Amino acid sequence: MRKPLFFLLSILVCATAAAQSMRTPASTVPVTFDQALDLAMGGSPQLEAARFEQRAAMFERRAAIGLRFPSIGVTGAYVLTNHAWEIRGGDLAGSLFDDLGGMGIDIPANIATGAEALLNRFSFPILRKEFATFGASASLPIFTGGKINAANRAARLGEQTAGEKERQVEGALMSELVERYYGLLLANQAVEVRRQVVEAMKQHLADALALEQNGVIPRSERLFVEVKLYEAERDLTDAVTKASTTRAALGNTLNSDEDFEPISAIFLLSDIPPLGTFREWALEKNPQLRQVELGRQLAVQGVTLARSEFYPQVAAMGYGSIYRYHMSKRFPTWAVGAGVTFNIFDGLQKEHKLSAARNTVRQVESLQYKAEKDISLLVEQLYNELLNNADRMPSVDKALEFAEEYLRVMNVSFREGVGTSVDVIDAELNLARNRIEKLQTAYEFDLTLAKLFEAAGVSEYFPRYARSREAVPVRF
């Protein structure tokens, strides 16, 4: 008789110590979903990286605007040569006599030689052995065949694409937060359910021991209760481990080492927008579809850029001398002009590049069509899952109501000696399954809703719906 009592006391002591060690840490920080959302959006490294990418694209767009403005610079030089640059009078006379000879006027050789010898005594300096100059230059593109316009449009599209990438990261972060925040709520309540099962099993074991000692039930029934107690404690341990892991995952999402305790309830929506609304949102606002569309527009600008190579490039230019050292005043102090460049033949490179750009547009259009179909299918799939979870809840509630009543009846029957401990334990475990199923159904509803909003490109709507009157809290 002492062995069963000693065994019962040892189980109770161990289970009590285990339950106390599994309780939620006292240092947890309560946090609502909105507070958790602020923490996640404010401290996410992925979101911060996406914002930096968006800022970089913004500065790239501003840099492209500069292509429309003149380019102004300063130039300066100091030169030292081995001799001065000058023109001798004899060289001018020789050139003059040669020109006269070309016109049929012959100059006698002795006169030409004498004149050159005489004029060689005179020289006209051009540049000294050392000289320096400092000035400003400017150039302005006048016509580029649309190249500058294409570059600016491409830069704007790049900035918009970076913005859509940021929205995509925000949507994924929202779904991750919903999964871990409400997942921790589910895990905590599952721990509570398992703990209640353990406590009920302890009471069943105590009753079974008393009945066995009085000869009411056989030893096998008491052993059955002990096995179920061990299983319940194992399930409790697993539930606590899962809750601890989910709590750490939530802290990672919130970028904090704190142990957060979610206090916003899991919910169901009593009113869900129609499927057509989600499809319209997705086609208009889904960040992935927006990126594909912006990629198509960027490919179109690639066609414009390739086509610009078929046009001449016209630019205006000017130069002004600000300071000169040892330079002749005969040199002009300023100059303005315009230049034209046009590549007549380059081995058909321009033609092939234009064809490649056009085929790139067609490629992106094909990908865009496929992406729209995939997103539309994903929205429909998630919407159907959402409705299924909502439709399951009434039957889950009925099953839970039946499980509670069935357990009550089995407990009464067992105490009156009519029922068996096996019936009571089965009823207890059935109630625990129904409670967890109710919470799991509501959790899957919330997670599917977050993913549906993400697919529709309106993840920011989730907190608003969670706070609305249509949000019905779900507890067991």
Write the layout of secondary structure elements.
Elements: H1 2-21, E1 29-31, H2 33-43, H3 45-65, E2 71-80, E3 85-88, H4 89-102, H5 109-119, E4 123-143, H6 147-213, H7 219-253, E5 260-262, E6 267-269, H8 275-285, H9 287-308, E7 313-327, E8 334-341, H10 349-415, H11 421-455, H12 461-467, E9 471-473
Keyword list:
476 residues; 5-stranded antiparallel sheet; two-stranded parallel sheet; alpha+beta; 12 helices
Tell me what the structure shows.
It is a single chain. With 476 residues, the protein is of the alpha+beta class. Helices cover 67% and strands 15% of the residues. The strands form 3 sheets. Strands 2, 3, 4, 7 and 8 form a 5-stranded antiparallel β-sheet that branches. The protein has a two-stranded parallel sheet with strand order 1-5. A two-stranded antiparallel sheet has the order 6-9. β7 (313-327) and β8 form a beta hairpin. α6 (147-213) runs antiparallel to α11 (421-455), α8 runs antiparallel to α10 (349-415) and α9 packs antiparallel against α10 (349-415). The model is unreliable at 1-24 (pLDDT under 50).
What's a quick, concise take on this entry?
The chain is an alpha+beta fold and 476 residues long. The chain is 67% helix and 15% strand. The strands form three sheets. Strands 2, 3, 4, 7 and 8 form a five-stranded antiparallel β-sheet that branches. Strands 1-5 form a two-stranded parallel ribbon. Strands 6-9 form a two-stranded antiparallel sheet.
Spell the H/E element sequence: HEHHEEHHEHHEEHHEEHHHE
Percent helix: 55-70%
Q: What number is the mean pLDDT?
A: 87
Backbone shape: rod-shaped
Structural class: alpha+beta
* Beta-strand content estimate: 5-15%
The largest β sheet comes out as:
5 strands, antiparallel
Cα-based radius of gyration, to the nearest Å:
43 Å
Residue stretches low in confidence (pLDDT < 50, at least 5 long) are: 1-24
What's the N-to-C terminus distance? 40 Å
Number of helices: 12
Number of strands: 9
